[in-house]
Amino acid sequence: MSNSDFEKNLFITYLDEVESYNLGDYSFMSIVSISMRKNYYKNVIEPKWKKLREKYCIPDGACLHFTDIKALLNKKYFDRPEKERNLDLEKAFCNGNILDKSKLYNFYIDIIDIIDECEIDVLVTGIRQDKNSKFNQCKKQLQNIYYILLREHLDNLAEYMTFKSDNNDTLCLRKLLIFDIVL
Question: Tell me: the pLDDT tens digits for 93-105?
Fold first, then answer.
């Protein structure tokens, strides 16, 4: 494989886990990843992301974790000690101790616009587990549920990216693939 072919087939992937629901004896956990070709990320997404940060005065390197942004909506957020708050986000979305909800709303609209404009692939792998099943109780002692989920997600991601690379971009981008595992 030539260096240019190798570069063309490099992907960047971000992933995160979430417990989608926890109802009585059942829970559902997911890992979601977004992937895009490295060159596309550098040439298209990075400039859009930089422009977004500049528009909202968010410094380079400041984390934009959804949970931190969502925390700003909590009325008791400013009761926390400063070391437990995200001061960069406060500067971007608050006037003193008051959240500028319209600015935060516009920020999310801008993110949705970026997602709509960009060619990204979304892969979701989920596990539904019955917490009372004998199989699940034995399995829990052997492996953490997130380990099982991550292993499965990485297998799915590797297979999907290999398929994309082998098909030289003929695969339609922006597909949402969902894999469910039932324990």
Answer: 999 899 999 999 9
